[in-house]
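Listing S7. Sequence submitted for prediction.
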Amino acid sequence: MIPPSLRNACLTALHAAHQGTSAMTARAEAAIFWPGITADIHQTRSSCSTCNRLAPSQAALPPTQPTPSEYPFQCVCADYFHYKGYAYLVIVDRYTNWPILARARGGSKGLVLVEVLRHTFATYGIPDELASDGGPEFTAHETTKLLRDWRVHHRLTSVAFPHGNCRAEIAVKTVKRIIAGNVGADGNINVDAVQRAILQYRNSPDPATKQSPATCLFGRPTKDLIPLIPGKYRPHKTWRDNISQRETALRHRHSLAQDRWSEHTKALTPLKIGDRVRIQNQTGNYPNKWDRTGSVVEVKQYHQYQIRVDGSGRLTLRNRRYLRKFIPATAPTTHRSILEDIAYAPVPPRSHRTLASSYHPTPSHTSHPDYPKPFPGTSDLPRNTHPNFPSTTHDPSPSYTYTHVHGYTLSYTHGHRQPGTS
């Protein structure tokens, strides 16, 4: 049985190797005990900054199904990618897998995005949702204004979490294969080879649904360089049959994908506003380390949290997988303004002191703590030109009132010496 005075030393010895709670508890069971030792061990491990920083990565979260699309171009996804030194924009429809490719011109990627989005909305209809990452092009003022004017909901994915916009990532890989070997040396996509490849992809049936993006969008294939029977270009007489066949074909594939994505996952406890969390690095020299800390300021959908990072104070959108709740060793410091100090700090009663000779300090004045000292290098100035005090010509003995708060002189007033003051 360990007395209270020695318990902290025992906890420090148990945690010397920075082991987890299980190893510390097993070691303590063989030697020491006191009431509440298990809770103290957990508290010691939770408050260790070294263990929190070097903690292993958390398991992937269970998959969350996105909002299903009921018709073409109801929900679209967008993303940027680079190929051979040139930047490209890809937009894909979640319902039909119809891709749209555009090239970014120099540093005007935001303007290209606005132009392509406006043309897409006018051609295929205004979508209900646009999903993208939080890149500077998608969060630019021009883009947000366009989406607000066209009444499109913009769903941003978390930082360094590509699974939040997985459909756009798949479209990027598909478009890279399309333009490989077809794009020119200057990165131009407005050439026959690239446009024929895109047309061929739009007419290619999906292996599971047996329907091409063109069939899902127009109800018929579009004419390309491969000859077809003339009747094949006429729309299908019933589009509802296509929808039923599509759902039946995708049901099995979605079931297998759900089981695959659910493997090795673990549901994490939801965070609340005000919780202190550690943020796992996804880039930089120390990936997968929990270096930065912050506080939860907003809880969003799809396991997303708005975090205010300590130090810089900037806001970042993170997925729950890369956030670990911790208990800080010390309470956070609250910063008060000077006005709050004045309002709540005790102010000593005013006293009038005669500073008749403080311009030329004498031994008795310089040693007294209540008398203000002159600025360095100004002790030899004439009495009425000293920068610490206003010029006086009518009263040889002005009096000053000082208000001290936490050791700082906040203000002083100039007046005449009152009878009976010193």
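Caption to Listing S7: primary sequence and predicted structure tokens for the chain studied. The first strand starts at residue 75 and ends at 83. Residues 157 and 284 are 20 Å apart (CA to CA).
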